[in-house]
Design goal:
Distance between the termini: 38 Å
CATH class: Alpha Beta
CATH superfamily: Alpha/Beta hydrolase fold, catalytic domain
Shape: globular
Largest sheet: 8 strands, mixed
Bound molecules: 2-acetamido-2-deoxy-beta-D-glucopyranose
Protein name: Neuroligin-4, Y-linked
Family: Belongs to the type-B carboxylesterase/lipase family.
Keywords: Glycoprotein, Signal
Oligomer: single chain
Number of helices: 17
Order of helices and strands: HEEEEHHEEHEHHEHHHHHHEHHHHEH
Number of strands: 10
CATH architecture: 3-Layer(aba) Sandwich
Pfam family, one: COesterase
């Protein structure tokens, strides 16, 4: 198979950056030591994982360095080789990050549903060990003992939900590896300010999107190394689920606003030549603590146009861009109500008033569009109102709001992404409706993007 240019993978990644599914416990899989596997970087011993009598055992090799410890605000470089047998039985540090504040449950449920709060608490157990030296991946393989020569398809999980937090460590790949007979790879990439700062204050082009480059480096490591673990390097699927598919929207925001706020917060001069040298000397805690406020519905730091990793060819020369995507197949989709995670617990269970719906829609439109804001709000409100019914009780208003926000942030961007791919039989789109209940008056149990993988892993394991 001809190898596609690495940068052409970026739109694919944008489509697939995902939500975190989390295992119940914040620790590595336990078991007997596995075989020792020799890779081109060195040897590694992992752990044998047994998930009950019905699933064949798999082996987990954790914490492999896919790049050198990164230099702040620089692209990743080749991983070091090591001598001796590396201990692959435990996770290595996650990238520095900031979870939403979970310290006061009552306060947190004013901004998120209880289900999301509980999920973030479970995720937090995996995030206790943080370091800028965080470019590690984990390999779960069904190739054990005499089946070791098999060439299993490879699935690389890119975590998501936010460009500010998460870790591949939180997805226990052992169940999928065993049930699906695939090699599963999970990985960390740089997040937040360290992963996505855009320092192009003057119209010169300097690389941003370090986090995306980390993912590309991890895929390169997988291509070169996965055969030693029983994986087929010509059969690699990148997968995930969640907010990242909406990246095309994020790209249109103004990334320098956050850059300027950050510089002010740590007393660095916001000029092209002075900024990065100054930010490199700052303690990590100061960078993470600097007050950077993003408008609601937008991340402070996320993928942005830098002219190098992501250039505006994406928008201006669609046809030539699409041409670079021909060697990829894509399966993309949405769930019934991806935006339900953005309501508070009481809004999700009891519904919203007309005034709350209007103010949320207005905030969304103001923070995302530049022109005709009042007209946009009116049109959206009109189009998402069910005119066949006289009364609009709070739960019906809630449904209208969630559908409008889901369409704007997920359905439309995912559709646009899929539309960029060449028109042939290799592009698929799905709508996942499991778990939704639209009947009026009932408490819904929507299954949003963020819970999708988690639920799948649980139902597969039980
Ligand atoms: C938690 O947050 C709620 C709502 O904001 C507030 O009323 C309460 O005092 C807070 N509790 C603590 C212990 O800070
Ligand atoms: C990848 O592996 C799957 C499962 O074995 C197989 O169905 C598929 O044809 C393979 N794809 C390629 C491109 O080899
Ligand atoms: C920035 O400078 C101000 C005024 O000199 C000072 O009060 C503040 O502590 C400094 N902040 C940091 C993060 O160094
Ligand atoms: C930058 O973000 C802040 C905080 O959301 C906002 O008040 C300000 O208007 C933004 N400035 C620009 C130029 O977008």
């Amino acid at each position: 198979m001809e190898r596609p240019p690495l940068l052409a993978m970026v739109p694919l990644l944008l489509a697939l950056l995902t939500a975190s599914g989390t295992a119940e416990r914040g620790r590595a899989p336990q078991g007997k030591p596995s075989r020792v596997i020799r890779t081109r970087r060195g040897s590694v011993q992992g752990v044998e994982v047994h998930n009950g009598p019905r699933l064949p055992p798999v082996e987990a090799y954790l914490g492999l360095p896919y790049a050198a410890p990164p230099t702040r605000f620089m692209p990743p470089t080749s991983p070091p080789s090591w001598s001796g047998v590396r201990d692959g039985r435990y996770f290595r540090p996650v990238c520095p990050q900031q979870l939403p504040d979970l310290s006061n449950r009552t306060a947190a449920l004013l901004t998120m549903p209880a289900e999301r709060y509980e999920r973030l608490l479970r995720l937090r157990q995996f995030l206790t060990d943080e370091s800028e030296d965080c470019l590690f991946l984990n390999i779960y393989t069904p190739a054990t003992g005499e089946t070791a020569r098999a060439r299993y398809p490879v699935m690389v999980y890119v975590h998501g939900e936010s460009f500010s937090y998460g870790s591949g460590n939180a997805l226990d790949g052992s169940v999928l590896a065993s049930f699906g007979a695939v090699v599963v790879v999970t990985l960390n990439y740089r997040l937040g300010v360290l992963g996505f700062l855009n320092s192009n204050l003057e119209p010169v082009r300097a690389v941003a999107n370090y986090g995306l480059l980390d993912i590309v480096a991890a895929l390169e490591f997988v291509r070169l190394t996965v055969a030693a673990f029983g994986g087929d390097p010509t059969n690699v699927t990148v997968f995930g689920h969640g907010a990242g598919a909406a990246c095309i929207n994020f790209l249109m925001t103004n990334p320098l606003n956050a850059t300027v706020q950050l510089a002010a917060g740590v007393n660095c001069t916001a000029t092209q030549s002075a900024l990065l040298p100054c930010l490199r000397t700052q303690p990590l805690s100061a960078l993470l603590a600097a007050p950077v406020v993003a408008p609601r519905f937008l991340p402070p730091f996320g993928p942005s146009l830098d002219g190098i990793v992501i250039n505006d060819e994406l928008f201006t020369r669609r046809a030539s861009y699409a041409h670079r995507l021909v060697s990829y197949r894509v399966l993309a989709g949405v769930t019934a109500a991806d935006a339900d995670q953005q309501l508070s617990e009481s809004q999700l269970s009891d519904g919203v008033t007309a005034a709350q719906r209007d103010s949320t829609l207005r905030t969304y439109v103001q923070n995302t569009y530049s022109y005709h804001l009042n007209e946009l709000v009116s049109v959206v409100r009109h189009d998402y109102t069910d005119w066949s019914r006289g009364q609009q009780p709070p739960r019906r208003l809630r449904d209208q709001l969630v559908h409008a926000l889901s369409d704007a942030q997920y359905v439309a961007p995912v559709t646009r992404t899929v539309d960029m791919y060449p028109d042939d039989q290799n592009t698929y789109f799905y709508v996942f409706n499991g778990g939704s209940d639209y009947s009026d008056g009932k408490k819904v149990s929507w299954l949003s993007a963020q819970t999708f993988l988690y639920t799948c892993a649980l139902s597969v394991s039980s």
